[in-house]
Structure formats: C-alpha cells, structure tokens
Design brief:
Blueprint: E1 5-10, E2 14-19, E3 24-29, E4 32-35, E5 39-43, H1 44-50, E6 58-61, E7 64-65, E8 68-69, H2 72-87, E9 94-100, H3 106-117, E10 123-130, H4 131-138, E11 149-154, E12 159-165, E13 168-175, H5 179-194, E14 196-197, H6 200-210, H7 222-226, E15 229-236, E16 242-248, H8 249-272, H9 276-285, E17 287-290, H10 299-307, E18 311-312, H11 320-330
Parallel strand pairs: 1-9, 9-10, 11-17, 17-18
Antiparallel strand pairs: 1-2, 2-3, 4-5, 4-6, 7-8, 11-12, 12-13, 14-15, 15-16
Length: 346
C-alpha cells in the first residue's frame, strides 16, 4: 500500500476517509453545529449528539443533501478539521482520490473536487472516481471484463443504480430514495397510529430493529413475535406530555411497503434501459446491493423475488465505496479509473 495517499467518500450522513499511511478507514458523522449563525460549537459525532436537541439559536447542518454538496463552506470546514485530526503530527501533503456520484452534473462533481482543492490542506494530486466504480472494485469485479454487472447502492438520501462493463459505467441513475426517507415514513406512521411525535434518531432505531422488507406475521415463531415490538418515547400529540408506546412490526411493514416497491421499480426501469447483452449477464450473475440502507432485513430477498435475479450483498456495505477508493488510490493498476478534472471538463 502507498503512503501519504488518501481516499474520501463524502456521504450524506457520514464522511469516510482512508488513510494510506495507517491503512485505516476513519468514519464520522458529517454534521456541523452552528450557534447564532456564525459560531461553530461542534462538528462530527459531537454535533450529532446535539441533533434534534438544540434551541432555536443553534443549527445542526448536514452539508450534503441528496448526494450533492448544499453548503460548500461547512463541508470544507468539516473536511479540514477531520483531516488535521487524522494526520496530526506527520506530513499532510499527499495524493487524494474523491468518490463522486455518477448521475449528477459536472458542476456538482466539481464541488466535491473543490472541497479539497480550495481547502487549507496541501495536496500533490487530486483525482475523482465515480462511486459505482469504487463499489465495483471493492466487490472484486474484473475491471477489464466485458461482463455486465449491476450495483444498487442504497444510501441515506439517495439510491444509485448502475450497470458496469469494461471498467466503465454503461448506465446510471440516482433516485431520491434512501434510509432518511424511510425514517421519515416511520416518524409519520408513529404519529398517525400512536399519536406520538418522535425524532429521526428514534426512527432510525425502529428501522434497525423492526423494518423488514418481507414481514410475514403468520410465518413467525412466538419468540419472533415477541421481538416484533419496540417501545419508544416521544411527545403525545394530544396531551403534549412525554409518552411511551410499543411500536409493532405489522404497522411498520404496512407503512413501508411502498418504499421497497419504489426501489424495485427503479431497478426494473434501469434494466429496461440496459443493452440486451448486458441484461443477459445480469440475469446470469445477479445484482449487488451496497450502501448502509441495504442492511434492512430481507431487502435482498425482496428485490430478488420482485426482479427475478439473484441478489448478493457484501460485508460492511456501509464502507463499500471507501474500501474501493482505498484500493484505487493505492494500487497503480487502478489509476486509469481515476481522472483529474480540467477547466474544460466543467
């Protein structure tokens, strides 16, 4: 592995940086807390602890929304501080590779590049790579093969569906559906069915424990039925007082079926626009789910059933992109997968 090389995956919820010297991946919440509009009082995990708990004069900001940078100034501040903490007392000059979504504008891609290029961090080289390509490398695809592969990366705000062949992206599509939308659905259903207001953090807990893309109460054992309820705290919308209620899996499933169907519909639409020869490859080898939200229970089985192809998952799908970036920036055989933007590119 090469020294003084760094890979970066700017996600909606988390920033992940690969440190080539330590050969490690650092992940932290990608959020900044600002008091009175101009005083920074917390970044990363510390700021996330404040999220949904602050008074009106403190704002918690996620600089990336729906896969693109919405606040460049905050994003640069976050990156500079995270990077300084990583490098601390050693040289901060190095080569960088930044993962960017494919199906965004060139101007939006340049914004990711500018986070590093216009920061106080000194760089010898800055290149970018499309996230589906990084995913493919992490999954162990032969980047010289003509075989078609489909990757569905389900993140916090977006789902990116890509077909890859010959080390390039044949077709790619981003839809604004991800784990945060599912969390909002859960907030709405708890309010509607239980008269309890909850926050996104509580909804995330419900999602992790109860969300199931193929929930079947009739097929569950008694122990599984006991585990299909979770008690949550929130504010009662009628009395205005703190309340605790038990949320059940059946209510969650009824409310979230449309979410799973939207992902399947997008996959089917992408397959319909994929060249026939590549479609036959995908039918043979299946498709791959990555991204943190792909961990929803039985989502792989649901997609396989609805689309009619085998679905494979990976260990730590949350880190799939950054693992691929770490390999690309460190191994010379992958250098042709990166590119350095020029003024004419934008």
């Amino acid at each position: 592995m090469a020294h003084n090389v760094y890979g970066i995956d700017f996600g909606t919820e988390n920033i992940k940086i690969y440190d080539g010297t330590e050969m490690s991946i650092i992940s932290e919440k990608e959020i900044i807390a600002i008091k009175d509009k101009d005083k920074i009082i917390g970044i990363g995990d510390k700021a996330y602890e404040m999220y949904e708990k602050t008074p009106d004069n403190i704002q918690a900001i996620f600089p990336i929304q729906y896969g693109v940078i919405a606040n460049l100034k905050c994003m640069q501040y976050l990156f500079e501080n995270f990077f300084k903490n990583i490098t601390s007392k050693r040289s901060k000059i190095g080569r960088f590779c930044i993962a960017v979504p494919t199906d965004i504008t060139e101007v939006e891609k340049k914004a990711f590049y500018d986070v590093v290029a216009k920061s106080e961090v000194r760089s010898r080289e800055i290149k970018i790579v499309e996230k589906p390509i990084a995913d493919a490398v992490a999954l162990g695809f032969d980047m010289t093969s003509s075989r078609g592969n489909m990757i569905v990366n389900i993140g916090a705000d977006t789902t990116e569906i890509s077909v890859i062949s010959h080390g390039g992206i044949v077709i790619s599509r981003i839809i604004q559906i991800g784990g945060n939308k599912l969390n909002q659905i859960l907030c709405d259903v708890v309010k509607r069915k239980y008269n309890i207001l909850i926050g996104m953090k509580t909804a995330e807990k419900i999602k992790l424990e109860l969300a199931d893309a193929m929930y079947d109460e009739d097929a569950m054992t008694d122990d599984e039925l006991d585990d299909s309820i979770i008690y949550v705290y929130g504010r009662n919308v009628i009395t205005g007082l703190p309340s605790e209620r038990g949320v059940t899996s059946d209510n969650i499933y009824d409310a979230t079926r449309e979410f799973y169907n939207e992902i399947v519909d997008a996959i089917k639409d992408t397959l319909e626009r994929t060249p026939p020869e590549l479609t036959s490859d995908i039918k043979e080898v299946g498709l791959y789910l990555t991204g943190g939200s792909s961990l929803i229970k039985n989502l792989d089985k649901f997609v396989s059933k609805e689309v009619g192809v085998r679905v494979s998952t990976t260990t730590s799908p949350f880190e799939s992109v950054i693992r691929g970036v770490s390999m690309i920036v460190s191994d010379p055989k992958y250098r042709n997968l990166m590119y350095e933007p020029t003024d004419s590119s934008f």
